[in-house]
Amino acid sequence: MKRVASVTLREERGRVEVCETVDGATRGLPWIRFRRGDGPRLVVTSAVHGNEVTGIRALQLFYDELRARSFHGTVTCLPMLNPSGCESNRREVSETSEDLNRFFPGRSDGGFAERLASAGYQAILGESPDCHVDLHADSSESIAYVILDRYLNAESAQLLPRVESLSAAFDAIRLYDWPLDQYRSSRLDASLSGSVLNQGKVPSFTVELGTLRYADEAKAVLACRGLLGVMARLGMMEPGATGGPEAAAPKVELRRYTPLRAERAGFGRFLVRAGQRVEAGMVICELSDVFRTRVEELKSPVSGVVLSIPDRYWFSPGMGLLTMAVRDE
Ligand SMILES: [Zn+2]
């Protein structure tokens, strides 16, 4: 790609203004755009959940790569879609304590979270992307994994091969989200990747990157490599470690699953680790009361791989005990 190397890099940055704040300043979403001539367009976002900050670090590494490498096309990053949540190191939007990732595509004349969602969503679709990647994080005891959204209409369903191929650039387990009824009842159709895919008709997926509240360096490196791999698969740069546009992508046959919920309140001691293969019937957690006079052994009803164990010790009835990848049947 000698032709590509000669195209100079244009780097621009700015802020999408969202609203004024009571201290007389404004809320805005910082963005940065790297362009080398014409070509495919990639948009990457992070920190929709304000305390999921590894994506911000991954993007810092990614900017350095974009400055150093030859490619063609445009990469736009919005690294901080929930600025108040990020500042206060919490998942929700600080102003209203709402989960921003259940309000997309948002409304510019709606409630606070809807307006914030709308500003981010419009900025993403305004780039006319060929692919969008949203970077998240799960827990301290979690592996990196890629979540693919459910297809809610015929048009988005046509994007399935493209989503599966582009997401294969990440060296991580790939899986579909919860079964459709749970996907809808959990309002994941209003998540950012779910909206960009099903309403924006753009290939979009979510990448989970470990710890909350601080950046996991190894997973940031993994994500940066994955993004470069997405560019290679989009035909924006030379084929990378995971291949170029024609590279094969194994079919995604797993889905997200919560195998166990607490039936009694208690403290959970997990007997498995993230990344571990679990067989059906294996004891995965002991749930005890505070004096350890009652101890329940909880067995996994299915076989699969542990994706994450929540960052908490106590559980109330109904709370999911861990997240697994199981066969999508
Ligand atoms: Zn998240």
Describe this protein's structure.
- This protein is α+β, with helices and mostly antiparallel strands.
- It has 2 domains: about 1-250, 3-Layer(aba) Sandwich (Aminopeptidase), CATH 3.40.630; about 255-325, RNA polymerase II/Efflux pump adaptor protein, barrel-sandwich hybrid domain (OB fold (Dihydrolipoamide Acetyltransferase, E2P), Beta Barrel).
- It is about 25% helix and about 25% strand.
- The strands form 3 sheets. It has an 8-stranded mixed beta sheet with strand order 1-2-4-3-5-9-7-8, sandwiched between helices.
- The longest helix has 18 residues, at about 215-235.
- It binds zinc ion.
- Zinc ion binds near residues 49, 52 and 136.
Strand content: 25-35%
Strand order of the largest sheet: 1-2-4-3-5-9-7-8
Question: Could you say what the CATH architecture of the largest domain is?
Answer: 3-Layer(aba) Sandwich
Q: What class do helices, strands and sheet pairing give?
A: alpha+beta
The CATH H-level superfamily of the largest domain is: Zn peptidases
Q: Given this structure, which CATH class of the largest domain is correct?
A: Alpha Beta
What small molecules does this complex bind?
A: zinc ion
Shape: globular
Gap between N and C termini? 43 Å
The total count of strands amounts to: 17
The number of helical elements comes to: 9
Whole-number mean pLDDT: 95
Overall number of domains: 2
**Radius of gyration, whole Å:** 20 Å
Compressed to H and E, one letter per element, the order equals HEEEHEHHEEEHHEHHEHEEEEEEEE
- The CATH topology assignment of the largest domain is Aminopeptidase
> What percent of residues adopt helix (DSSP H or I)?
10-25%
Largest sheet: 8 strands, mixed
Q: Uncertain spans, ≥5 residues at pLDDT below 50?
A: none
